[in-house]
Queue: 2 jobs
Job 1
Amino acid sequence: MSKRNGPRYALLGLFLIALLVALTFTVQRNPDAAPAAADAPKTDDAQLQSLAELDGKAPARRKLDIQSWQTAEGAKVLFVEARELPMFDVRLTYAAGSSQDGDIQGLAMLTNAMLNEGVPGKDVGAIAAGFESLGAQFENGAYRDMAVTSLRSLSAAEQREPALKLFEQVIGQPTFPADSLVRIKNQVLAGFEFQKQNPGKLASLELFERLYGTHPYGHPSEGNAQSIPGISREQLQAFHAKAYAAGNAVIAVVGDLSREEAEAMAAEVSAALPKGPALPKTIEPDAPKAGLTHIDFPSNQTHLLIAQLGIDRRDPDYAALYLGNQVFGGGGFGTRLMTEVREKRGLTYGVYSGFTAMQARGPFLINLQTRAELSDGTLQLVKDLLGEFIANGPTQEELDAAKREMAGSFPLSTASNSAIVGQLGAIGFYDLPLTYLEDFMAQVQAQSVEQVKTAMAKHLDPEALVIVTAGPKVAQKELPPPTDKPAEQPTGVPEH
């Protein structure tokens, strides 16, 4: 996986303006808010409203009016008008992740990393200076399913128009300069050397190879030390021409724009891209062979990765599985895993589980580190906890608590323009309905214990686990018994 920011910091003035407008908007939208301290009358009316008055109600969240259309070149567009700040975000999501690498591992990552290294008449320094002088921010990244490019800028025409022109050059006319290609290859190769000292990364690479084999998800997004040196500028150009084509892109726009302005912006961005259709969707993987692989590594702790194939992003059981996982290991403190593995036994600093739902079936993964001499017992404990949860599901109390937590935290998913544009990109890329955000929370709140139990048992099998461990081979000890006060607390932060 790679993510590159250029430039990393926009002009300070952009944020000062945004902050001032945000503060002004907050006062205008909250006429009952207390005045400034110097002017506040010394009465009870000036006191802050008690949180107790919320009476358990979930915080309000933004109602999104998502509008959608298609450009003349075939790009899907999703737009939300947001006038609170004089800014806009545009994010393009392409089916141009490493699953499209074919036989050239790392091609998608390298193409994306090179986008802002040069355009006609400008090198990487001039591009960065151009965005910075406008108070604009460009970001890009490449992953297994997708590649992304995004722009954030002030919405006033004098900033918006030149920032958009530069953005269009970067995504539509990259020159892939030879000197930059050498530099970035060397950076990537240096990263591969560093990976050799990271047992968690080694375990992750082995896990995906075990889970997916020769499937497009099986190889690392960044390629490998054998594939990267031979990638040519001509191969980058060819990949860009097909994978960054307008028909293979979703354009998400959020901000201080009218529908007419958003349509003009999307049309301009779409026209700047190469012409071409959407690429074929990633094929579904075959079921992997269950079992354990150990990587011997001289560390104090052992990394444990426990996984199996999960679901794709459009699976109808997504809401039930997401909710069930929040109870089991996805919700931080209070989950089954954290309670039994960390809080009662002090075996780890943190233990987490999750479904990564992708274009094809992504992994369900449990991830933790523990003391090397307790790794066998910890692994068995986690497997037992998973088997018990699959067999019996959550309790009603656990499910109700998870629903309350999700109702309280879900507004954060649309709390900012950048969060909204990310949601729109996912909705468009995975062909989800425009009402997805509303539908998802309604589905979560409607789930029963039996529905969650049924979904977990349908998609997870404790006998089909692919397990990778990385750490030293040492004599094993028995696990301490569960207690409210573990004799030995977890050691600080994880090693890696």
Note: Residues 291-471 form a domain with the Cytochrome Bc1 Complex; Chain A, domain 1 fold (CATH 3.30.830.10).
Job 2
Amino acid sequence: MKKHFLLLVMGIIAVLMLAACGEKSKTDVVENLDKKVEELSGYKAKAQMTLQTGSEPQIYEVEIWHKQPSFYRVNLKNAEKDQSQMILRNNEGVFVLTPALKKSFRFQSEWPQNSSQAYLFESLVKDIKSDADSIFKSTKNEYVFETKTNYQNSQMLPLQEITFNKKDLKPSVVKVMDTDRNPLVVVEFTDFDFGAKFDKNSFDMEKNMSFASVDVETSAAVDSKPFSVKYPLEEIEGTKLTEEKEMTTENGKRVVQTYDGEKSYTFIQEKAVAATVATSSSVNGEPVDLGVAVGALTEQSLTWTYDGVEYMIASKDLSQEEMIRVAQSVQGQAIK
């Protein structure tokens, strides 16, 4: 009798040991990710972000700094287009810096908590926790989640696939997908340091603007480059282009397109000119990631700079999501 009892106890212990050594469940992994966020003091990461939203892929190098609880520095650079912008959050607010133009916008914003952020670790974990129906799978070396997104234009980009390394739970790849699961934004992390340290000026706006590596040749190229008129490819039902005016300004040309209909709007584009001294403007709105650039979104307007051109959409009829969709579709060249 004692022999049988001993065998039973040994069998139970063996089963428990096997279970402990087995694959972690979805719940286990989510709990571990959440614990990782709670224990974070800060991190530094580097990634390559590829956008497939236009006719050709756009590749950005992204450098991410985060210091708990709410300091951020995200530097996005497209070397091919001489496009560089920085999103900065400190005790003074949220800033979007365009160093080549010596310009910055200041927001009183909840960014990055108010939407998904494909390059921020804690945002990815938040999206996973928020989606009770997320899909989970475990491979030899990775944990993979498919979750819903929380973008302002979530109809265009409703899903994301997030991959973490099993060994240290560092994110490796994030794919943001359309309704057909085509990846339109891919973030591939090349470096991730959970134990990063920062000096006192790491998140200072003026220091970051002055430290930005922008040389005179790049600024001159922005000032002298002509631009081709572009048209939104997003079709708003009942709205069409009815007028286009080209005006000459001291900095070159300004093009004003008028779209009339049930949801009318005005689309303005003109050459971006670098300020002689650093300037900062306050915006009663939110920074918004358009993929190719970070824009300033208000209730009735959306402005952004890309490839040496300043763009603005103004409308009393379009919703903010519709303005974002129109802005993201600006890629067609004029045929004249």
Note: Residues 5-9, 13-21, 213-222 have pLDDT under 50 and may be disordered.
